């Protein structure tokens, strides 16, 4: 994950994101990534102006809690936040996208690989999603390759 965080911070630097918000799940994945990101952003002169830890109950985040987190970014009073980094699972990311769509929240977002199951088809269902970049390619399934392995591994 450390390499992914370095890529995220480098991308923020290239995008001139020097004043950001972070939303993360309040679990070992989210908290751990947020703590490491704080160290990396500090070294690169990127200010985390707003952060929200989102609690998960029965595998799902409360839409009201997510709405509060997004509104705190929208109404952040010190200076305009230029980007949002999200450390969350796919389910949480979809709830976030639904809320941002409803609130017409217009801000660049970077999702961690925990949200990697969000495919292009899913993103296209949100009017707020204008583009996407995936750091890892989608998994391809080749039926003939599976057949090849079955023929090798089958006890004949």
How would you explain this protein's 3D organization?
The chain has 156 residues and is an alpha/beta fold. The chain has 6 helices and 6 strands. It is globular and about 65 Å long. The model has no long low-confidence stretch (mean pLDDT 81).
- Globally, the shape reads globular
Number of helical runs? Answer: 6
Cα end-to-end separation? 42 Å
Strand % is 15-25%
In round numbers, the mean pLDDT is: 81
Main sheet specs: 4 strands, parallel
Percent in helix = 40-55%
The total of beta strands comes to 6
Report the radius of gyration as a whole number of Å: 18 Å
Protein structure class: alpha/beta
Uncertain stretches: none
Strand order across the largest sheet: 2-1-5-6
SSE pattern, N- to C-terminal = HEHEEEHEHEHH
């Amino acid at each position: 994950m450390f390499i992914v965080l370095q890529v995220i911070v480098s991308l923020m630097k290239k995008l001139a994101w020097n004043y950001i918000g972070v939303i993360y799940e309040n679990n070992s994945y989210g908290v751990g990534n947020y703590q490491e990101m704080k160290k990396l952003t500090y070294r690169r002169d990127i200010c985390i102006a707003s952060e929200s830890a989102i609690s998960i109950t029965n595998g799902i985040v409360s839409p009201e809690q997510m709405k509060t987190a997004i509104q705190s970014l929208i109404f952040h009073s010190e200076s305009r936040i230029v980007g949002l980094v999200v450390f969350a699972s796919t389910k949480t990311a979809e709830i976030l996208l639904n809320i941002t769509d409803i609130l017409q929240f217009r801000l660049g977002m970077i999702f961690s690989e925990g949200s990697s199951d969000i495919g292009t088809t899913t993103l296209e269902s949100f009017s707020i999603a204008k583009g996407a970049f995936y750091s890892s390619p989608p998994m391809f399934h080749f039926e003939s390759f599976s057949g090849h392995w079955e023929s090798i591994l089958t006890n004949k």
